[in-house]
Amino acid sequence: MASPDAIRAWAGSRRVAGSRSPYPAHRGGAALAEPQVTRLAFAGRTSTYDQQDPTLSLPRQLRSCQHVLPENAVVVVHFYDVESGRTDLADRGRGHAHELFQIPIPRDGGIQDLLEEAERPDRRFDAVICESIDRISRRAYIATEIEHRLEQVGVALLAADEPIRFDDMGKSKTATQVLTRRVKQGVAEWYVTEMLEKSWDGFEVHTEHGYNIGKPCYGHQAKRVPHPVPAKRAKGVKKTLLEAHPVEGPVVRKAFAWRVVERLGYQSIADRLNTDLITNPPPTPVDPDRSVGRWTYSNVRDVLTNPKHTGHMVWNRRARKGKGKNRANPVEEWVWSPEPTHEALVDLETFVQAQQVTEHRQRSRTDSGPNRHPDTRRTYRLRSYVFCTVCGRRYSGKTARSIPYMVCVPKKNYRQADHPSGFWVREDSLMDGLNNFLATQVFGTARHYLLDRDLRALDTAEQRAREERLGSLRTAIKDTETKKKRLIRNLELVETPDQEFLRDVNERRTELLAQKESLQQQLVELEDQVHRTPNPDLLSRLPVTPVDLALVPDDLSRRLFEALRLEIHYDGATNEALCRITLTGDTIEAVARATHETAVIPLSRDAADRDKNYQKEKTGMKTNHDLATICAVPPAGFEPATPALGERCSIP
């Protein structure tokens, strides 16, 4: 009967179950109990190339692995990547950052190549070794998944800082080794997560203090200040604040004014700026070689969407890491400084209005004239101004039997239950109704009588009280700030203040800060209320003149419509259209200019005198308020020829 030693000798001459090593079991007729050399694959990783030096880190990792290997083990292939350890496994090993460096290690691929070769029967290695398990991944789940995939094909994953055994490759791990490795993987993930949290908090404080990150935005320039840390300050390191650029600053204000007042598109603003590149120098990219020497659509968009122009420092507007690198973050994720930290080129209200224009212009061409599509045959005058009252979508132009229509035909999957397959209305019918509306309610001599009765009876005393309240709030805020400064000065006069005195000072300072914050909140609310208060006197600043839209070119009529903030809400079910315009103190001059260019019939002297005498009877009012667009009720005995402002008019 064979002895146990004989059975072991017989088993040693065979390949170990699960091992796919291409080494022959016999060489020169002599039986070998085990391979003479254990072949290893080096798995290395260094962080992103702007955080570490791969030319030093990777050779150090390889040397650490080779230092712990026994004599019968050798590294024969090298797999390494230059990437973040927190990247998802599906995206690992697919970058090209390693190509930017002269790394003195031959590269056979990345982590994906290692896993792919491990599954082949002709792989060139028997085990994988890394400096530490966190080099495989900084996320415990991904590191464990890689380890599991290697074990499934009989490849052990070794770490240089853990005990290494080659006497039994099929059972190389022990209970203690598993516990140690899992603890290290958890610590590695915890360390990175904690560093990210602390880094985020640091960037928030950095933003609150007004320090800029990266290239200053167009319209501002860098203001270098000494670093607050003495050691870094001694090395000449500086931090960056922002200050208004003397040449670029006015260009930003000009672009915002065109966007808000005339609601021009990005490309239209770029075309205007390109007419004088000396006064309006284009932005210079981070890489000057990429400069095109003129304003582009994207240049204008970047300027008009950058909140730093409001004087606040803003950070985290774009994602810089992960799968969505350089994608725009939601506005609620932006980090704002609580107070302005540098000179503002536009106020917050103007910035918000510019973004609202973007929402209004979404999926709508801004320039006049026909579409650039080669099959375009005509232009629709009311394109982008007609809205569906059922679904809220914008009507588009369509021609049927040589007749132009405005249509709302949503796709079946996006159609509401109460929305038919489509609404059609003739464009010339809408133009006739709009022409009567503008000629009578907006530029007619009796336009004031066509306003809503509530607007004509606006309480001027109430408006005057609001103005006085605004002045008192601004004065109170200024007085509170003066008291706070006086409190600090009094503290400087006390040579040896005791704890009770300091406590009283801190309590008083806290009270003043809370009082100032409350007053500022009241001021914001009241300013918003004043801004929304209707002001019918804005109509008096418009010229009185007939306008025939049929004789006005498309580019001029669109300028007039934009200045008027024209909206036509058409209800296809009742065949009614509601025309609405909005006048503000900021846009009234643009309306007057556009009207002067589009008017084709001169105003008679009698009509001009009547309007002049009527305006003299009006009391003076502020002109920075919106004109409410609500139903008009004419005075008794007055019979207008067309429906009143905001009143629905039937379209045949």
UniProtKB/TrEMBL annotation:
Compositional bias ranges of the Basic and acidic residues kind: 358-376
Keyword terms, alphabetized: Coiled coil, DNA recombination, DNA-binding
Residue ranges of the region described as Disordered: 356-376
Chain coiled-coil ranges: 502-529
GO molecular function: DNA binding; DNA strand exchange activity
SUPFAM superfamilies named among the record's database cross-references: Resolvase-like
Pfam families given in the database record: Recombinase, Resolvase
Family annotation (InterPro entries): DNA_bind_recomb_sf (IPR038109), DNA_bind_recombinase_dom (IPR011109), Resolv_N (IPR006119), Resolvase-like_N_sf (IPR036162), SSR_resolvase (IPR050639)
Residue intervals of the Recombinase domain: 234-364
Protein name: Recombinase domain-containing protein
Source organism: Streptomyces aurantiacus
Lineage: Bacteria, Bacillati, Actinomycetota, Actinomycetes, Kitasatosporales
